[in-house]
UniProtKB/TrEMBL annotation:
Homodimer. Gene3D superfamilies: HUPs, Pantoate-beta-alanine ligase, C-terminal domain. The gene is panC. Belongs to the pantothenate synthetase family. Coiled coil: none annotated. InterPro entries: Pantoate_ligase (IPR003721), Pantoate_ligase_C (IPR042176), Rossmann-like_a/b/a_fold (IPR014729). It is found in: Cytoplasm. The reaction proceeds by a bi uni uni bi ping pong mechanism. This is Pantothenate synthetase. It is an enzyme of class 6 (ligase). It comes from the Bacteria. Catalyzes the condensation of pantoate with beta-alanine in an ATP-dependent reaction via a pantoyl-adenylate intermediate.
């Protein structure tokens, strides 16, 4: 397969088009995480469809003091990676092509959902992101667009925008790709020194600690649901043998709530303990936030929450800011 490199919307629009078109939007500096998105797009589009990868470093989503100027531009390498992963087209428009009249006066607003977590740290970021995604959806006219789950808040906002504004496109989330040591793949990882990378691993370790705590709670909840509703319940639960679970057995015995024991707060606390320890490393991890949120609106979940949630974390190591998250489900069927 030879991947076509196009720079104008007209050249993309005039291509013969058969079957479904699947689009993967990127800012370039492609890595294995992007490649997994492209491969997923290839499977969805099928042999008769078309996979388009956009490469555009969007100035609207970089705030003052952020890394727009040093953001890596590696178009030749990007085309090779896209081709190997199965892309038919790399669409790499210039700024004048995407914003022909300069910075747009009319933009998409992310609303309240865009003001929390990443939005609180990076004011205006999500307005700029949604504006360029809306424009690229119009320019590429896909049947389906794929985005990584690592940028969970971005994915949630894009889904909300396409639903609220009646975009005729299916949005698909693709699971986060991690390196062997657990670090989520990111174009910004290349900025980390070896020492900074060791500290950065605490982001994923914190998430895994929260996930383990959640799994223990869910195991206890399942046992609680099957144990007799008597004073013997605590003894039955203690027999599970997991020390943290046994410590909470009495609490589970007293409540059939799906979130018991400890609930969302205990999951966040388990993650935060790892992050607090990382703050004492050299170099230290500077925590921005760790939160357990509802993926529908990114508000923090309440005690007793059931259903899907996202455990999200953001921090700086040196001058590099990293984000990561894990999806969790509370109160799964037993």
């Amino acid at each position: 397969m030879t991947t076509a490199l196009l720079h104008t919307a007209d050249s993309l629009r005039t291509r013969a088009r058969d079957g479904h078109r699947a689009v993967v939007m990127t800012m370039g500096a492609l890595h294995d995480g992007h490649a997994s998105l492209i491969r997923a797009a290839r499977r969805i589009a099928g042999p008769q469809g078309e996979v388009v990868v956009t490469v555009f470093v969007n100035p609207l989503q970089f705030g003052a003091g952020e890394d727009l100027d040093r953001y890596p531009r590696t178009l030749d390498a990007d085309v090779k990676i896209a081709e190997q992963a199965g892309a038919d087209v790399v669409f790499a428009p210039g700024v004048d092509e995407v914003y022909p009249g300069g910075e747009p006066q009319v933009r998409v607003s992310a609303g309240p959902m865009g003001t929390v977590l990443e939005g609180a740290t990076r004011p205006g970021h999500f307005d700029g992101m949604l504006t360029v995604v809306a424009k690229l959806l119009h320019l590429t006219r896909p049947d389906v667009a794929l985005f990584g789950q690592k940028d969970a808040q971005q994915l949630a906002l894009i889904r909300r925008m396409t639903r609220d504004l009646n975009f005729d496109v299916e949005i698909v989330g693709v699971p986060t790709v991690r390196e062997d040591d657990g670090l989520a793949l990111s174009s910004r990882n290349r900025y980390l020194s070896p020492e900074e990378r060791r500290t950065a691993l605490c982001l994923s370790r914190a998430l895994f600690a929260g996930r383990d705590r959640h799994a223990a709670q869910e195991a206890l909840r399942a046992r609680a649901a099957s144990a007799p509703a008597t004073l013997a319940r605590a003894d039955a639960l203690s027999a599970i043998g997991e020390s943290r679970a046994a410590a909470d057995a009495h609490a589970v015995a007293q409540s059939a709530a799906p979130s018991a024991p400890g609930g969302p707060a205990a999951v966040v606390a388990a993650a935060r303990q790892v992050l607090d320890e990382a703050a004492r490393l050299s170099p230290p991890l500077e925590l921005d936030y760790v939160a357990l949120v509802d993926p529908a609106d990114f508000t923090e979940v309440r005690p007793g929450h059931t259903g899907d949630a996202v455990l999200a974390v953001a921090a700086k190591v040196g001058s590099t800011r990293l984000i990561d998250n894990l999806p969790l489900t509370f109160g799964a069927a037993v």
